[in-house]
């Protein structure tokens, strides 16, 4: 994390939380961030995680992803356009490479101009299929 023009200081906690979000297979919730930090033997309070996530959002280092379940998840902002897969069994969300619907900057037959879109596929992830 670099110090930007509004003075975002580099701290160990901010670095850890940003690294957790950046290395995840898909967007992660605050609770998932806390669990992943715990798995790394890093203890950061939930209030600190929320404050850090809000700071990272304000500085546009991460973005919020909202799916049908209304849980706010976070991913880095510097990744190319992509879609998501949400597992019905384990509730994990995975990034999918590329775009399955190439409509950027297109005009729909009704005359609407498309400048972005979001697609979330739902089903059972590979890990859950193998464990059942």
Automatic annotation (TrEMBL):
Name the cofactor(s). Answer: Zn(2+); Mn(2+); Fe(2+)
Domain of life, per UniProt, equals Bacteria
Q: Which InterPro entries match?
A: FUR (IPR002481), Fur_C (IPR043135), WH-like_DNA-bd_sf (IPR036388), WH_DNA-bd_sf (IPR036390)
Gene Ontology BP term (one): regulation of secondary metabolite biosynthetic process
Keywords attached to this Swiss-Prot or TrEMBL record, sorted alphabetically, are: DNA-binding, Iron, Metal-binding, Repressor, Transcription, Transcription regulation, Zinc
| Chain residues that bind Fe cation | 81, 117
Q: Which PANTHER family match?
A: HYDROGEN PEROXIDE SENSITIVE REPRESSOR (PTHR33202:SF22), ZINC UPTAKE REGULATION PROTEIN (PTHR33202)
Q: Which protein family is it in?
A: Belongs to the Fur family.
The protein here is known as Transcriptional regulator (FUR family) protein
Q: Which organism is it from?
A: Lentisphaera araneosa HTCC2155
What lineage is on file?
Bacteria, Pseudomonadati, Lentisphaerota, Lentisphaeria, Lentisphaerales
């Amino acid at each position: 994390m670099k110090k930007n023009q509004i003075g975002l200081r580099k701290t160990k906690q901010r670095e850890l939380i940003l690294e957790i979000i950046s290395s995840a297979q898909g967007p992660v919730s605050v609770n998932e961030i806390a669990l992943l930090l715990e798995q790394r033997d890093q203890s950061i309070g939930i209030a600190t995680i929320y404050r850090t996530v809000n700071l990272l959002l304000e500085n546009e280092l991460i973005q919020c992803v909202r799916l049908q379940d209304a849980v706010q998840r976070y991913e880095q902002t510097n990744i190319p356009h992509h879609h998501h897969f949400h597992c019905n069994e384990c509730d994990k969300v995975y990034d999918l490479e590329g775009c399955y619907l190439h409509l950027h900057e297109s005009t729909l037959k009704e005359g609407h101009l498309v400048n972005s879109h979001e697609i979330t596929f739902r089903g059972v992830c590979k890990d859950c299929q193998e464990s059942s």
